Amino acid sequence: MSKTVHTEAVKHLFEAVLQLENVEECYQFFEDVCTINELLSLSQRFEVAKMLTENKTYLEIAEQTGASTATISRVNRSLNYGNDGYQMVFSRMEKNQ
């Protein structure tokens, strides 16, 4: 059986996330859904992606975020060969600032 993220359960989770209206609601929801370590890992990857798009070096990123080079490499692979999700979000965030 092949793994896929496109399941009914994941769809329901994403639909729930789309109901959140502000950062405080995100805190409430994600603190219930995720462990502290899961949430910190997700936020770390997001910061790594942001820094990679700012052309920071692996060393700078590792020092500032505490991420391992393996994590930085995985995020970099997603930026280069993924579904452009990071770029979509960064572009929207930049437009909304």
Automatic annotation (TrEMBL):
Name listed for the protein in its UniProt record: TrpR YerC/YecD
InterPro entries: Trp_repress, Trp_repressor/repl_initiator, TrpR-like_sf, YecD_YerC
PANTHER family to which the protein is assigned, alphabetical: LMO1763 PROTEIN (PTHR40080), TRPR-LIKE PROTEIN YERC_YECD (PTHR40080:SF1)
Pfam families the UniProt entry points to: Trp_repressor (PF01371)
